[in-house]
Amino acid sequence: MASPKNEGFLTDEQREVLKIAVQNAEVLSSSPSPRSPTSSLLLQEFYKNNGGGNGAGGGGKALGAGPKHVRRCHSGKFVKVKKDGGGGKGTWGKLIDADLDPCLNDPNDPNYDSGEEPYELVGATICDPFDDYKKSVLNIIEEYFANGSIEAAISDLRDLGFKEYHNYFVKRLISMSMDRRDKEKEMASVLLSSLYSDVLSPAHISQGFMMLLESIEDLALDIPEAPEMLAVFISRAVVDDILPPAFIGRAKKLLPETSKGVEVIKIAEKSYLSAPHHAELLERRWGGTTRLTVEEAKKKIIDFLREYAENGDTAEAFRCIRELGVPFFHHEVVKRAITLAMEKPESESNVLKLLKKANEELLISSSQVSKGFSRVQESLDDLSLDIPSAKAIFNSLTQKAVSEKWLDASFTSSAGANGEVLDGDYAKLRRYKEEVVTIIHEYFLSDDIPELIRSVEELSCPEYNPIFIKKLITLAMDRKNCEKEMASALLAALSMEIFTTDDIVNGFTMLLESAEDTALDVLDASDELSLFLARAVIDDVLAPLNLEEISNKLPPKSSGTETITMARTLASACHAGERLLRCWGGNTGWKVEDAKDKIAKLLEEFETGGDLGEACHCIRDLGMPFFNHEVVKKALVMAMEKKHDKMLDLLNECFNEGLITINQLTKGFTRVRDGIDDLALDIPDAREKFESYVNHARENGWLLASFS
């Protein structure tokens, strides 16, 4: 039997040395060099030193170093390696070996390092947060259309985050609803209103609609009615106060003139926002609505009142009133309750108790109570056909309500001394209101002030002038800024033609008394009323003292008195005239610098031989009555420079025609007085001239007594 030594086996000592060499090779293999030759060198050194330790023989030769270019890998095989001239004795070999060592690329090799394998680039999809947002938004909208839960939609969108993408939500919501039923379209409008200011900012809404306008041509390919639908959505957003009316003008400027987006804007502007009663029409535009309809509300009111008449459960009746969620419609509750008391006299005590307690607990406001009584009063003729004693019962109920102080005593001002309703007066008032509404709507369409004045004069009802003012401003507040500007311009014209200051004061008083109810329909009614009041002061329609007069007629600490305070602040602010002229956004007025140039030119033309009537006509055409003090100032300065009194003739004519008011004349004289020192540098006798003009003005009643 051959000796193990001759068969190439290692001694125990050699095995121990080999084990140490392998361990050292593993430790050194973690070197940062790309490919460490340490393990191979150690093994070669081991075989070189221990090759003859087994004695000379075939086995020893096999275990020895053997040929210089033979290496033994750990799998037990010997591999011949071509030296290729790289390196020599005591060197690390070539910097880069052309032939890679198969041992080092063998995954079974203990020295194998996967990090040394060539890198392989693997394609991977980059995650875009906007893509995730779009998918989530799609699910939110689909769920909302399925379950109708506004609260869930608001919560989901808020939790989603990514506020910078919310304009896409607006676009996606509307575009998805376009391809669905009217119910979903109404749901989309309601959701936008619910999200506004809480989750969606005004910028999100505007940008979302702008994106829709820019992509309407693509939408129209799939949904031919898309332009018409988008026009309705834009108009509805304006009515719901989530999109400013100024958006219409901005969108026109940003979109190409020939684009479909401009067509959509024109449809919204002409077909919907300019139509009479457009707010009510747009609220019902989609047919079925998610909100309570008028007919449904009336039915619910009748049902719970009948139930209340039987059981007298006031708490249950109050719960039903609150559940209706229509505080602006509480006058219907009052009307139906009074009618029920007329039909069933035995329920009268319960009805009076309900209305009195509802008013005391502020569930039904005083103005809603008055409106309810007024509606019954207007329909007494019809009620008398079914209930012969309707007028007597109504008079009795009215007296009890006034005596118990839950109906305003002023309600009886249009009744006779004995409390009997004056049927002729009510019929006349009702006809007047109907005709006035028609006249105002025609004015908003035509902008023809002379025609309106002629129509009002033909009515021959000067006692109802305050009602006209109330109707005018109420209708204007529910329309665009253009109509608000037209209303202010009309007030200025009416104050000079046919309306007295008392008419205007009483009209604004009526408006402010019902301000709380108006605010239910027009959210920023208080702000707009304050602008109308301040503008009236600037236009000399009202004097500042008239604001105090109106305030004294209102209950203290009411919303009306707050509106008066706000109007005073606006009218007394620096540059109030210029600002209030443009309080409704863009309007037809001149810029201040342009107005000054025009005033200077018309005065120069008049001074060089112009006609007095033509000069007055030019001043009137400026359309800036609040700025007429500039006419006074320039006329006085020009009179000083030219040293003749022709300009005083012009001022006298303007004053006599009511073109320039005493307030504006006083303000003009005050401005000249304040700048007299500077004028004296160029006009030596400026002070003497000014004193003579002041005396002339006082003699003709041009100046207020406060001027000194």
Short note summarizing the structure:
The protein is an all-alpha fold and 708 residues long. It has helices spanning 12-28, 38-50, 58-63, 129-147, 150-160, 166-178, 182-195, 202-214, 216-222, 226-239, 246-254, 260-273, 278-283, 294-311, 314-324, 330-343, 348-360, 366-378, 380-386, 390-403, 423-446, 449-459, 465-477, 481-497, 501-513, 515-521, 525-538, 544-552, 559-572, 576-581, 592-607, 612-622, 628-642, 646-657, 662-674, 676-682, 686-699; strands at residues 70-72, 78-80.
Give me the side-by-side strand order of the main sheet: 1-2
Shape by Cα distribution? extended
Fraction of helical residues: 55-70%
Mean pLDDT: 76
How many beta-strand elements?
2
Structural class, from secondary structure content? mainly alpha
Radius of gyration: 46 Å
Percent range for β-strand residues = under 5%
How far from one another are the termini? 145 Å
Return residue spans where pLDDT drops below 50 for at least 5 consecutive residues.
1-8, 29-39, 52-69, 77-84, 89-100, 413-423, 586-590
Question: In DSSP terms, counting alpha (H) and pi (I) runs of 4 or more, how many helices?
Answer: 37
Instruction: Describe the sheet with the most strands.
Output: 2 strands, antiparallel
Subcellular location: Cytoplasm
Domain MI: 132-253, 296-417, 431-552, 594-708
Main location: cytoplasm
Keywords: Cytoplasm, Nucleus, Repeat, Translation regulation
